[in-house]
């Protein structure tokens, strides 16, 4: 898997460093500043001296000095790791390129996926934003600075930062890079109490939790992560399990800020009490929540006659008939079964 290198270009004061810092803070990108790379070539002087040196090194190396500096600065793991979970560690931001030769050198390097972002800003705004205002006029008139404007036609994305605030620039760039993940990817499973709001969902949650990278337990202190944390999890392809405290899936999803399109499965936990079972309530709960699976806790006579069961085929005929009717009414299969309320392990009907 290629390392993604976000190459930022733009005039003085366009917000290049602000964007690079945002990618580093929000997505863990490695931020490489060209002026730091120039230090290895004697570029410790003023902005004008760095501009002169950049042109000299471009002429001497054909722009390859920048890609050589980038490769030297990369952690070894960036070139070796290939799993999707390490996607964020393979993101590099180069702040910034100032010539086509530098850009071409990066694009020509195998193993690098180069995405070029060009930021624009009107000259009056540049002067106000310049970090070194005393040298702005001299730096602005330098040939290296004038050549930067020509890079806009080579970029995958051009943003006028005078019209777009920094947080919006970051969102647009992150979206262009695919850092938010696919919005339609269903990575969320929800465990929700059905008929009885007091039914204990914790045994099922504990049994399922090892299959997930993220666990949210609603109704406990500070259960909801920041939206950014969830977006990062989705971008990495991490699966999320939510244990709801209430009986409505839509309310739980709204509280966590998760779109319904992210949901893969909804497991509704019910307690069965044989002849006194609330069939009307089950149908209403299924209609509201649309469960994909049911988890059933046997109670009453069904529990007393099936407490020793360890497989579905060990259930009594009465229990099996009850499960079949429950599935017809709810429109979902019973995928998990607790033979009694005291059972510590649920029987799985099929691998989760």
UniProtKB/TrEMBL annotation:
One of its GO terms (biological process) is purine nucleotide biosynthetic process. Signal peptide: none annotated. GO terms for molecular function: adenylosuccinate synthase activity; nucleotide binding. This is Uncharacterized protein.
């Amino acid at each position: 898997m290629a390392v993604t290198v976000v190459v930022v270009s733009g005039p003085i004061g366009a917000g290049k460093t602000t964007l690079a810092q945002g990618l580093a803070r929000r997505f863990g990108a490695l931020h490489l500043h060209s002026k730091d790379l120039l230090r290895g070539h004697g570029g410790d002087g003023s902005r004008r001296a760095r501009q002169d040196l950049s042109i000299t090194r471009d002429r001497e190396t054909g722009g390859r000095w920048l890609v050589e500096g980038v490769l030297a600065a990369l952690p070894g793991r960036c070139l070796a790791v290939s799993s999707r979970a390490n996607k964020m560690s393979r993101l590099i931001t180069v702040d910034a390129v100032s010539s086509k030769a530098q850009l071409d050198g990066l694009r020509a390097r195998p193993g690098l996926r180069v995405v070029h972002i060009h930021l624009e800003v009107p000259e009056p705004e540049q002067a106000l934003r310049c970090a070194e205002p005393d040298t702005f006029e001299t730096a602005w008139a330098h040939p290296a600075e004038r050549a930067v404007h020509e890079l806009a036609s080579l970029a995958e994305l051009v943003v006028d930062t005078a019209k777009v605030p920094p947080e919006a620039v970051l969102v647009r760039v992150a979206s262009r890079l695919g850092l938010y993940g696919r919005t339609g990817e269903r990575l969320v499973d929800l465990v929700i109490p059905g008929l009885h709001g007091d039914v204990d969902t914790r045994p099922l949650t504990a049994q399922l939790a090892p299959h997930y990278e993220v666990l949210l337990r609603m109704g406990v202190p500070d259960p909801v992560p920041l939206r950014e944390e969830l977006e990062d999890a989705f971008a990495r392809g991490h699966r999320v399990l939510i244990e709801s405290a209430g009986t409505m899936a839509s309310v739980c999803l709204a509280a966590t800020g998760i779109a319904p399109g992210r949901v893969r499965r909804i497991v509704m936990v019910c307690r069965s009490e044989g002849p006194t079972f609330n069939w009307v309530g089950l149908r209403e709960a299924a209609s509201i929540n649309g469960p994909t699976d049911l988890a059933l806790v046997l109670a009453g006579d069904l529990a007393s006659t099936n407490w020793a069961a360890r497989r579905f085929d060990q259930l009594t005929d009465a229990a099996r008939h009850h499960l079949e009717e429950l599935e017809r009414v709810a429109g979902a299969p019973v995928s998990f079964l607790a033979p009694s309320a005291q059972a510590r392990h649920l029987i799985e009907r099929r691998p989760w």
